[in-house]
Hints:
Layout: E1 12-17, E2 23-28, E3 32-37, E4 43-48, E5 54-59, E6 65-70, E7 74-79, E8 85-90, E9 96-101, E10 107-112, E11 115-120, E12 126-130, E13 137-142, E14 148-153, E15 158-162, E16 168-172
Antiparallel strand pairs: 1-2, 2-3, 3-4, 5-6, 6-7, 7-8, 9-10, 10-11, 11-12, 13-14, 14-15, 15-16
Amino acid sequence: xxxxxxxxxxxxxxxxxxxxxxxxxxxxxxxxxxxxxxxxxxxxxxxxxxxxxxxxxxxxxxxxxxxxxxxxxxxxxxxxxxxxxxxxxxxxxxxxxxxxxxxxxxxxxxxxxxxxxxxxxxxxxxxxxxxxxxxxxxxxxxxxxxxxxxxxxxxxxxxxxxxxxxxxxxxxxxxxxxxxxxxxxxxx
Length: 188
C-alpha cells in the first residue's frame, strides 16, 4: 500500500484519480467529497453541499470540474480548484446513483430511480430525459466519442441511447439479475 487516505467519517463509496494522476477525489456516506494530494496523501479540501450520502464522483476530462451524485435527488458540479458548487442538477425524483462527464466535459449524464438525464455542464440545464427501463437505474456512461450513453438497470438490462436525440438504439438482455455498472470499450 502506497497511501491510505484517512478522513471520512463514514464508508467511502467511490475514489477516482484526476486526469493528471496528482489528485484523488472520494465520495462518502458522510455526505461529503474530499480531494486528496497523491504526493503527500493529505486532504486538500472537503466539499459539503449534499444533504444525504454521496454515491459517485467524477472528474471532467480536463480535471477542472467534478460531478457528484447523491441520495438527496441531486447531482452537483464543483470547481476542483476552489471546492465550490455553483450548479446543482435538480429534476430527479429519487436518489441519483451515478454521474459522469462526456469526453468533452460539456455534458453530464445522471442515473436515478426515475431514469437518466443528460445535462449541459455549463448551464446546468437538463437537455434530454432517457426513459424506457422498467426498474431503477444504477449507472450511466458516455461512449468515448460522446455520441451514445449506456445505462444499467434493476430490470436486468442495459440500454444504449443516442446522446443527441435520446432515442434508445439497443437493449442488451441476458443477465439474470440487476446490473450495477456498464461502460463502453475505448473504441466504442
